[in-house]
Amino acid sequence: MFRTAMGFIGLLGALAAVPPAIAEDNSAYSVLIISRERLEVATSCEIGVYLNDQLSGRLFQEQSTSFNLPAGPVDVRLRLLPGQTPGCAPGLEDQRSTRLNLQAGQINKYRIAMGQYGMELKRAPLDY
């Protein structure tokens, strides 16, 4: 009994030495929503959303995706992805990206539209 009690006290002492896990403040993040809800991009190909040159999301028609990102600048690039649909093979594309400056605690919504140089992001209302 004494041995069990001492083991329990030792375990409690070891747990007290470990610092508690504290979640970061949610206000340090921003929400980025990118939608392909409108039929502005006349292709059935999947569109890849690249954040800081990393493929982070894929969108078909009538879809949207969201990201919780730290506040600050983020480069967003859109690209047609190869797939099973005919005509979706990669070719020469505009490699420019759009730099967005995200503010902490804000929700930013953009829609994919066709511009002079290909696909681009346009600010959209939240409509909640």
Keywords:
four-stranded antiparallel sheet; Immunoglobulin-like; 128 residues; 8 strands; mainly beta; 1 helix
Written description of the protein model:
This protein has 128 residues and is mainly β. It has a single domain, classed as Immunoglobulin-like (Sandwich). It is 12% helix and 42% strand. It contains one helix and eight strands; from the N terminus they run H-E-E-E-E-E-E-E-E. The strands form two sheets. The chain has a four-stranded mixed sheet, with no helix packed on it. Strand 2 (47-51) and strand 3 form a beta hairpin. The radius of gyration is 23 Å and the shape is globular.
What are the low-pLDDT stretches, counting only 5+ consecutive residues below 50?
Answer: 18-23
How large is the count of helical segments? 1
Looking at the overall shape, the CATH architecture is Sandwich
**CATH class type:** Mainly Beta
Number of strands: 8
Query: What portion of residues belong to β-strands?
Result: 35-45%
**Largest sheet: number of strands, sense, barrel closure:** 4 strands, mixed
Q: CATH-wise, what's the superfamily?
A: Carboxypeptidase-like, regulatory domain
> In which order are the strands of the major sheet placed?
4-1-7-8
Helix content: 10-25%
Basic shape? globular
Which class of secondary structure composition applies to the elements? mainly beta
How far apart the termini lie comes to: 61 Å
| Number of structural domains | 1
User: What does the average pLDDT come to?
Assistant: 79
CATH fold-level label: Immunoglobulin-like
Which radius of gyration do the C-alpha atoms yield?
A: 23 Å
Order of helices and strands: HEEEEEEEE
